[in-house]
Amino acid sequence: MPSATMEEYLESIYKLSEKGQVRPSQLAEAMDVSPPTVTATLGRLQASGLVERADGSIELTLTGRQAALDIVRRHRLAERFLVDVLGLRWDEVHEEACQLEHALSPRVQRALQEFLENPSVCPHGHPIPGADGSIAEAQGVPLCENGPGDVVEIVRIEDEQGEMLSYLSSLGMFPGTNVRVCDVAPFKGPLLVEVGEARYALGRDVAEKIVVSEPVTEKRRVRKGILR
After folding, report:
1. pTM, to two decimals
2. Going from the N-terminus, what domains does the chain have, and what CATH number goes with each?
3. What is the pLDDT, as a whole number, of residue 109?
Protein backbone atom coordinates (compact mmCIF):
# COMPACT_ATOMS: atom_id res chain seq x y z
CA MET A 1 0.00 0.00 0.00
CA PRO A 2 1.60 3.32 -1.08
CA SER A 3 1.95 6.02 1.56
CA ALA A 4 -0.14 9.20 1.32
CA THR A 5 2.87 11.05 -0.13
CA MET A 6 3.47 8.36 -2.74
CA GLU A 7 -0.22 8.44 -3.67
CA GLU A 8 -0.03 12.18 -4.23
CA TYR A 9 2.97 11.69 -6.51
CA LEU A 10 1.16 9.01 -8.49
CA GLU A 11 -1.84 11.29 -8.87
CA SER A 12 0.33 14.16 -10.12
CA ILE A 13 2.26 11.93 -12.52
CA TYR A 14 -1.00 10.62 -13.98
CA LYS A 15 -2.43 14.12 -14.49
CA LEU A 16 0.80 15.40 -16.05
CA SER A 17 1.01 12.35 -18.33
CA GLU A 18 -2.35 13.26 -19.87
CA LYS A 19 -0.55 16.19 -21.53
CA GLY A 20 2.61 14.36 -22.63
CA GLN A 21 5.93 13.18 -21.25
CA VAL A 22 6.52 13.80 -17.55
CA ARG A 23 9.87 15.20 -16.45
CA PRO A 24 11.14 15.40 -12.85
CA SER A 25 11.25 19.21 -13.11
CA GLN A 26 7.53 19.28 -14.02
CA LEU A 27 6.73 17.01 -11.11
CA ALA A 28 8.73 19.18 -8.70
CA GLU A 29 6.76 22.24 -9.84
CA ALA A 30 3.41 20.45 -9.61
CA MET A 31 4.17 19.11 -6.13
CA ASP A 32 5.83 22.36 -5.01
CA VAL A 33 8.89 20.53 -3.70
CA SER A 34 12.61 20.62 -4.42
CA PRO A 35 14.23 18.47 -7.16
CA PRO A 36 16.15 16.36 -4.58
CA THR A 37 12.86 15.56 -2.82
CA VAL A 38 11.35 14.43 -6.13
CA THR A 39 14.40 12.28 -6.87
CA ALA A 40 14.16 10.56 -3.48
CA THR A 41 10.43 9.87 -3.77
CA LEU A 42 10.75 8.63 -7.34
CA GLY A 43 13.34 6.18 -6.08
CA ARG A 44 10.82 4.75 -3.63
CA LEU A 45 8.13 4.60 -6.30
CA GLN A 46 10.47 2.82 -8.68
CA ALA A 47 11.55 0.34 -6.02
CA SER A 48 7.86 -0.40 -5.39
CA GLY A 49 7.28 -1.13 -9.08
CA LEU A 50 4.98 1.86 -9.56
CA VAL A 51 7.03 3.96 -11.99
CA GLU A 52 9.70 3.48 -14.62
CA ARG A 53 12.31 6.01 -15.68
CA ALA A 54 13.86 6.18 -19.13
CA ASP A 55 15.48 8.99 -21.10
CA GLY A 56 14.84 11.42 -18.28
CA SER A 57 11.07 10.91 -18.30
CA ILE A 58 8.74 9.26 -15.78
CA GLU A 59 6.15 6.64 -16.72
CA LEU A 60 3.63 4.81 -14.58
CA THR A 61 3.78 1.03 -14.69
CA LEU A 62 0.50 -0.87 -15.08
CA THR A 63 0.36 -1.24 -11.30
CA GLY A 64 1.23 2.43 -10.86
CA ARG A 65 -1.48 3.52 -13.27
CA GLN A 66 -4.08 1.43 -11.45
CA ALA A 67 -3.01 2.96 -8.13
CA ALA A 68 -3.08 6.46 -9.63
CA LEU A 69 -6.60 6.00 -11.04
CA ASP A 70 -7.76 4.71 -7.66
CA ILE A 71 -6.56 7.84 -5.88
CA VAL A 72 -8.02 10.06 -8.63
CA ARG A 73 -11.35 8.25 -8.18
CA ARG A 74 -11.29 8.80 -4.41
CA HIS A 75 -10.41 12.46 -4.84
CA ARG A 76 -13.18 13.22 -7.32
CA LEU A 77 -15.83 11.29 -5.40
CA ALA A 78 -14.82 13.25 -2.29
CA GLU A 79 -15.21 16.52 -4.21
CA ARG A 80 -18.69 15.53 -5.37
CA PHE A 81 -19.69 14.68 -1.79
CA LEU A 82 -18.34 17.97 -0.46
CA VAL A 83 -20.20 20.02 -3.08
CA ASP A 84 -23.41 18.03 -3.59
CA VAL A 85 -24.06 16.93 -0.01
CA LEU A 86 -22.20 19.31 2.32
CA GLY A 87 -22.79 22.36 0.14
CA LEU A 88 -19.21 23.60 -0.06
CA ARG A 89 -18.35 25.84 -3.00
CA TRP A 90 -16.52 24.22 -5.90
CA ASP A 91 -13.52 26.50 -5.34
CA GLU A 92 -13.12 25.21 -1.76
CA VAL A 93 -13.13 21.45 -2.24
CA HIS A 94 -9.85 20.56 -3.98
CA GLU A 95 -7.64 20.88 -0.91
CA GLU A 96 -10.28 19.34 1.34
CA ALA A 97 -10.55 16.34 -0.99
CA CYS A 98 -6.77 15.96 -0.89
CA GLN A 99 -7.13 15.27 2.83
CA LEU A 100 -10.10 12.92 2.50
CA GLU A 101 -8.90 10.85 -0.46
CA HIS A 102 -6.36 8.86 1.56
CA ALA A 103 -9.02 7.61 4.01
CA LEU A 104 -11.65 6.26 1.59
CA SER A 105 -11.69 2.47 1.55
CA PRO A 106 -13.12 0.55 -1.44
CA ARG A 107 -16.25 -0.09 0.62
CA VAL A 108 -16.75 3.60 1.34
CA GLN A 109 -16.07 4.44 -2.31
CA ARG A 110 -18.82 2.08 -3.44
CA ALA A 111 -21.23 3.51 -0.88
CA LEU A 112 -20.39 7.07 -1.91
CA GLN A 113 -20.85 6.30 -5.59
CA GLU A 114 -24.27 4.76 -4.95
CA PHE A 115 -25.33 7.56 -2.58
CA LEU A 116 -24.30 10.20 -5.13
CA GLU A 117 -26.20 8.31 -7.87
CA ASN A 118 -23.14 7.34 -9.90
CA PRO A 119 -21.69 10.72 -10.91
CA SER A 120 -19.60 10.65 -14.07
CA VAL A 121 -17.57 13.82 -13.46
CA CYS A 122 -16.25 15.86 -10.53
CA PRO A 123 -17.57 19.41 -9.87
CA HIS A 124 -14.86 20.78 -12.16
CA GLY A 125 -15.89 18.50 -15.05
CA HIS A 126 -13.13 15.87 -14.89
CA PRO A 127 -14.20 12.23 -15.46
CA ILE A 128 -14.41 10.00 -12.38
CA PRO A 129 -12.64 6.65 -12.92
CA GLY A 130 -14.67 3.49 -12.42
CA ALA A 131 -13.97 1.01 -9.66
CA ASP A 132 -12.46 -1.27 -12.32
CA GLY A 133 -9.88 1.35 -13.30
CA SER A 134 -11.65 2.43 -16.48
CA ILE A 135 -11.95 6.13 -17.26
CA ALA A 136 -13.77 8.03 -19.99
CA GLU A 137 -11.59 9.77 -22.53
CA ALA A 138 -11.42 13.50 -21.86
CA GLN A 139 -13.22 15.47 -24.56
CA GLY A 140 -13.17 19.10 -25.64
CA VAL A 141 -10.77 21.84 -26.72
CA PRO A 142 -9.49 24.97 -24.96
CA LEU A 143 -11.84 27.94 -25.24
CA CYS A 144 -9.02 29.98 -26.79
CA GLU A 145 -9.10 27.76 -29.90
CA ASN A 146 -12.56 29.03 -30.85
CA GLY A 147 -13.35 32.03 -33.03
CA PRO A 148 -15.86 34.87 -33.15
CA GLY A 149 -19.46 33.67 -33.35
CA ASP A 150 -18.80 30.23 -31.86
CA VAL A 151 -21.22 29.14 -29.14
CA VAL A 152 -19.71 26.46 -26.95
CA GLU A 153 -20.49 24.63 -23.72
CA ILE A 154 -17.97 24.48 -20.88
CA VAL A 155 -16.93 20.86 -20.31
CA ARG A 156 -14.36 21.21 -17.54
CA ILE A 157 -11.86 23.56 -15.91
CA GLU A 158 -8.25 22.38 -16.09
CA ASP A 159 -7.01 24.55 -13.21
CA GLU A 160 -8.61 23.32 -9.96
CA GLN A 161 -6.95 25.89 -7.71
CA GLY A 162 -9.24 28.10 -5.66
CA GLU A 163 -8.29 31.48 -7.14
CA MET A 164 -9.07 30.49 -10.72
CA LEU A 165 -12.33 28.79 -9.75
CA SER A 166 -13.42 31.75 -7.62
CA TYR A 167 -12.80 34.07 -10.55
CA LEU A 168 -14.79 31.90 -12.96
CA SER A 169 -17.57 31.59 -10.37
CA SER A 170 -17.87 35.38 -10.30
CA LEU A 171 -18.40 35.28 -14.08
CA GLY A 172 -20.97 32.48 -13.87
CA MET A 173 -18.72 30.11 -15.82
CA PHE A 174 -19.26 26.50 -14.69
CA PRO A 175 -19.31 23.14 -16.51
CA GLY A 176 -22.57 23.08 -18.44
CA THR A 177 -22.58 26.85 -19.04
CA ASN A 178 -22.89 28.06 -22.64
CA VAL A 179 -20.45 30.72 -23.79
CA ARG A 180 -20.46 32.78 -26.98
CA VAL A 181 -17.15 34.02 -28.34
CA CYS A 182 -17.72 37.59 -29.51
CA ASP A 183 -14.22 38.59 -30.56
CA VAL A 184 -10.62 37.41 -30.37
CA ALA A 185 -7.81 39.95 -30.21
CA PRO A 186 -4.84 39.30 -32.52
CA PHE A 187 -1.35 38.28 -31.42
CA LYS A 188 -2.65 36.00 -28.67
CA GLY A 189 -4.67 38.79 -27.10
CA PRO A 190 -7.77 38.37 -24.89
CA LEU A 191 -11.10 36.88 -25.90
CA LEU A 192 -14.35 38.82 -25.52
CA VAL A 193 -17.01 36.33 -24.45
CA GLU A 194 -20.71 36.50 -23.64
CA VAL A 195 -22.17 34.57 -20.69
CA GLY A 196 -25.90 35.06 -20.39
CA GLU A 197 -26.44 38.82 -20.77
CA ALA A 198 -22.94 39.80 -19.67
CA ARG A 199 -19.71 40.20 -21.61
CA TYR A 200 -16.21 39.66 -20.26
CA ALA A 201 -12.66 39.95 -21.57
CA LEU A 202 -10.72 36.78 -20.76
CA GLY A 203 -6.95 36.65 -20.89
CA ARG A 204 -5.50 33.93 -23.11
CA ASP A 205 -3.96 32.22 -20.05
CA VAL A 206 -7.45 31.90 -18.52
CA ALA A 207 -9.19 30.88 -21.73
CA GLU A 208 -6.77 28.03 -22.32
CA LYS A 209 -7.72 26.51 -18.93
CA ILE A 210 -11.43 26.40 -19.88
CA VAL A 211 -12.19 23.28 -21.93
CA VAL A 212 -15.30 23.47 -24.09
CA SER A 213 -17.34 21.36 -26.50
CA GLU A 214 -17.50 21.74 -30.24
CA PRO A 215 -19.58 24.82 -31.20
CA VAL A 216 -23.32 24.35 -30.54
CA THR A 217 -26.36 26.06 -32.03
CA GLU A 218 -27.87 29.25 -30.69
CA LYS A 219 -30.93 27.28 -29.54
CA ARG A 220 -28.83 25.66 -26.80
CA ARG A 221 -27.61 28.93 -25.29
CA VAL A 222 -29.19 28.18 -21.94
CA ARG A 223 -27.20 27.69 -18.78
CA LYS A 224 -27.73 24.12 -17.53
CA GLY A 225 -27.41 23.63 -13.78
CA ILE A 226 -25.99 25.87 -11.08
CA LEU A 227 -23.18 25.04 -8.70
CA ARG A 228 -22.75 26.72 -5.38
Report:
1. 0.86
2. 4-60 (1.10.10.10), 141-220 (2.30.30.90)
3. 94
